[in-house]
Amino acid sequence: MTVNLPRSSLRAIAWIALAALALALPFIVLLTGQRASGTSFMWDFSMGLGFGALAAAGLQFVLTARFQPITRPYGIDIVYLFHRYFAIGAVALMLGHFAILYIWFEDALGDLNPLTAEWELTMGRIALGAFVLLVITSEFRKTLRIPYELWRYGHIALAIIAFGAAVAHIIGVGHFTAEADKRILWLGVAVSWIGLMVWTRAIRPFRLWHNPWRIVENIPREGGVHSLVLEPLGRGLKNWKPGQFVWLTLGASPFALKEHPFTISTPPEHGPKVTLSIKPLGDFSEWAVHTSPGAKAYLDGPYGAFSIDNDPEAKGFVMIAGGVGITPMMSNIHALQERNDPRPVILIYGNKDWESAHFRHELAKLEETLNLKVVHVLENPPDGWEGETGFIDRKVLADHLPEETRHWPHFLCGPGPLTDAAKSNLLAMGVPLTAIDSEIFDLV
Ligand SMILES: Cc1cc2nc3c(=O)[nH]c(=O)nc-3n(C[C@H](O)[C@H](O)[C@H](O)COP(=O)(O)OP(=O)(O)OC[C@H]3O[C@@H](n4cnc5c(N)ncnc54)[C@H](O)[C@@H]3O)c2cc1C
Known about the structure:
By secondary structure, the protein is an alpha/beta fold. The chain has twelve helices and twelve strands.
């Protein structure tokens, strides 16, 4: 039987295979390395855990470098999920490495006092501490009330310290890296990580800095959203698809790492200008919606894979949005309009009240010209409202999604509880998991 996988799936599998190879590499080094004489299984196992941990941690530089060929088959949210779970896995392996040494070979850990301890062991402890801190501050950022910007700078600084210390630890300790070729390999790995850091923190910002954009319009919309229309002063975006997003830097240089992700709410057919529709929710977005035309901006992208273009054979589309999660739907719906695409779209759109339903007038107009059905679901409906009320629950979905839509692509974007509930209801209604795609606006 021949299985015809789409090219994007093949690419996704190929990247996973490459990642597996990168993870296996340290074990190959370990197995082919010169062993210290008289070591036991537990000792070797502990070393294996240490090497595996560093390989898994090193992969994080690749995952967060935002390489478009890597992010395209999965979508950036999935790549960040990989980043999150690989990082937790790496720290678990590191703790295993340390625990085995602590329980069975405590003497090997030497003196704890950094002034008298062997430097390479102190490096190991610094690396472990920094990696643990990286995971704790990321997993519990909101509980610990760490502002996003502070967290981001701290995350980068801790990652540099952790990797520097870990590589110094491996090279300094020298087990399994005693031979010159093994040292060269580890130095090579370290240099590649540094190369990736230089790419993400210096070369890419430099390229963005050379390619600025300008805000040409700031259009207030319903529900407090503002659409910023930007035109490229240099090169426009290349090969973008409806539903994709960019990292926007406004009022700062691209080197300042003050970028925020926003969906391009207009379709590629409206290019080279792009429109970002922003809801004021915090410091940056509050400030961004008041930006005047003429202001300079920098756009890094396009990223993401939340697009009707993923499935050219689809018979129709189901879109379920909450609040500002409507932006990628607008881009996809506008693309269908531009292409005179007659395929049906059912959009189920949840909001607190009628006033906060963004783009409601535009959607009403689009309904007149497109094969589009919009179902507004309001938590607090106005007097006389005859539409759906409450939340987008199983009943709403069952009432508006006929049986024939089950295998259409389903796009979900909005607050976590909304997309989680919609996803489990859709699965229970018989929609295959592969037909459900959700976009997460809250990466950390
Ligand atoms: C793929 C994607 C597409 C998005 N599209 C849109 C859109 O079209 N319209 C829209 O209004 N919003 C969109 N967002 C959300 C938008 O990025 C955040 O609301 C904005 O960054 C909040 O920043 P703030 O300083 O105003 O708020 P804050 O109060 O500082 O942050 C609120 C939350 O936003 C997230 N956040 C903050 N800064 C960043 C950052 N630099 N990078 C990543 N996440 C951050 C954090 O989870 C934070 O807890 C999108 C997010 C993602 C991930």
